UniProtKB/TrEMBL annotation, chains A, B:
<dbReference type="InterPro" id="IPR029062">
    <property type="entry name" value="Class_I_gatase-like"/>
</dbReference>
<keyword id="KW-0804">Transcription</keyword>
<dbReference type="GO" id="GO:0003700">
    <property type="term" value="F:DNA-binding transcription factor activity"/>
</dbReference>
<keyword id="KW-0805">Transcription regulation</keyword>
<protein>
    <recommendedName>
        <fullName>HTH araC/xylS-type domain-containing protein</fullName>
    </recommendedName>
</protein>
<dbReference type="InterPro" id="IPR052158">
    <property type="entry name" value="INH-QAR"/>
</dbReference>
<dbReference type="InterPro" id="IPR018060">
    <property type="entry name" value="HTH_AraC"/>
</dbReference>
<feature type="domain" description="HTH araC/xylS-type">
    <location>
        <begin position="217"/>
        <end position="305"/>
    </location>
</feature>
<dbReference type="InterPro" id="IPR002818">
    <property type="entry name" value="DJ-1/PfpI"/>
</dbReference>
<dbReference type="Pfam" id="PF12833">
    <property type="entry name" value="HTH_18"/>
</dbReference>
<dbReference type="InterPro" id="IPR009057">
    <property type="entry name" value="Homeodomain-like_sf"/>
</dbReference>
<dbReference type="Pfam" id="PF01965">
    <property type="entry name" value="DJ-1_PfpI"/>
</dbReference>
<dbReference type="GO" id="GO:0043565">
    <property type="term" value="F:sequence-specific DNA binding"/>
</dbReference>
Length: 305, 305
């Protein structure tokens, strides 16, 4: 069980905090072994929009272990730190985390807290586009990158402005729990999942899911849950409460793919994962993934490679 | 000055609340004449993710006027109301708002609160895709639409799941304060602005802005702020801290348009607005929008119509 700790600075940007909270809370609800915790380091934890939080525990009460994650949201520009002078114990606590295997993430101007802890020295990072110059100036030993949704450098993640914290949180869920859970979370939150421009991995689970049609989602879910059976159009239409003809039209309209192409994509991807990670025979893999025989599978693996 | 009131139910979905709060808070920071307020109607105001709020005023203390807006976020499924029995005074308060000119919005399962107040009877609405059936069943006189980001029916707005509250809030900002402020808000929040599928209006200010490149944004901002001058490529390159050649390449890559096409689009749109809303002569409009003469303007208006 990993703990995801949200640091709440006073004058916290509410959406910086709430976006990642909701992503991890939804991952937890979907079965991911995480629990959420909130800490503060100042006398109070207010938000920049005038809504204050009830008492939040002090950071020093939190015991963290390797695999845990600490997330620092941004705060009002006027409150941005550039040194550790005001809260030396808090910054020392932050600074010791990466070497203990605890990962750190900042959203937006939360990067200034990582900088004050010395964690940006020698690392690449990013922040809100309006603060890129100020962050570089405050922490000259860091390498501040513009035009990125998020950046990862040796256990320290930073993300761009405000809503980019949602994108970073989704990327962290994907990194830890895989693309299938990530698509379930983004679908539940009705989120458009933006990938980092430099994020190499393409996901068959997430691609073609940035639409809103509930019937098409039902058909896609059913296909994912019944790879071996390779369900017929009639079965899918029933699942989606639609006619075969209408589902065919809707599926293409909302996903950009035919049902058959989507099905082949996800079954090929599942087979590729089994080839790479299991000791199953090609025959067994073909059966599990709904292929006629190992030759059909092999042809598709070759073509998609 | 309009008041935007956020109702905080106990077990509130944090992102349902925080998304619209941040959008309106940012609109306020950019000069929109709104103020934000928070109210509760139960004994406490917690969030579904375990983070509680400090004391929030009771709804009955809030004096509202025509033009104000009340937003109701969603809450944990187990806490969804289907009748007004538990908080009759609160629901009576909600119910009286539209006839007094106060608009109401729900995010996600917040639609159940509008339903319990009788506000969905005879109206079209939407909610989280997993609750579309339950909402229709609980409030049979409503018309629950699936597959929508948000729906507006005579002063009552409702939106789909969780993150769709951000889209609704942006649409409300656009409706009230125009597309230019909306693009500034979404840019500051680093948000991808998703429009409703049925949202007819296309905005030259928002289109071609769903990218992250700071230099290109600077050039676009400068063009918007200097319509009459129709700035040269050299001027824009300096503004964007780039070379003319590099800016030309980046602009096209990130916006999908040449600088010249983008400039023509925004100047034509500004001119069209002036033709429709002012008593200026065509000559004066052409000058203000950086056209050589009224004939050039007229040709472009005709072509784009």
């Amino acid at each position: 069980m990993a703990t995801i700790v949200f640091v709440i600075p006073d004058q916290c940007t509410l959406l910086d905090l709430a976006g990642p909270v909701q992503v991890f809370e939804e991952a937890r609800a979907q079965g991911a072994p995480v629990e959420l915790a909130y800490v503060q380091y100042q006398a109070q934890a207010g938000s920049s929009a005038g809504l204050a939080f009830a008492t939040v525990p002090h950071f020093s009460t939190m015991m963290l272990h390797a695999g845990d994650l600490v997330l620092v949201p941004g705060l009002a520009d006027a409150a941005l730190p550039t040194t550790a002078d005001d809260y030396p114990e808090f910054y020392a606590w932050l600074q010791a985390l990466p070497e203990r295997g605890v990962r750190l993430c900042s959203v937006c101007t939360g990067a200034f807290l990582l900088g004050a802890a010395g964690l940006l020295n020698g690392r690449s990072c990013t922040t809100h586009w309006q603060q890129v110059g100020a962050l570089q100036q405050a922490f000259p030993e860091s390498r501040v990158l513009a035009d990125r949704l998020f950046v990862h450098d040796r256990g320290v993640y930073s993300s761009a402005g405000i809503a980019a914290g949602i994108d970073l949180a989704l990327a962290l869920v994907e990194e830890r729990f895989g693309p299938l859970l990530t698509y379930k979370v983004s679908r539940r939150l009705v989120l458009y999942y933006r990938r980092n421009g430099l994020h190499g991995q393409v996901s068959v689970y997430l691609d073609h899911r940035n639409h809103l049609h509930p019937g098409v989602h039902l058909a896609q879910d059913y296909l994912l849950d019944h790879l071996a059976e390779n369900p017929t159009l009639e079965v899918l239409a029933e699942v989606a409460n639609s006619s075969p003809r209408n589902l065919t039209r809707l599926f293409r309209q909302h996903t950009g793919l035919t049902i058959n192409d989507f099905s082949t994509k996800i079954r090929t991807e599942a087979a590729r994962t089994l080839v790479a990670t299991s000791s199953l025979t090609r025959q067994a893999i073909a059966e599990r993934c709904g292929f006629r025989d190992p030759r059909q599978l092999q042809r598709l693996l070759g073509r998609a490679a």
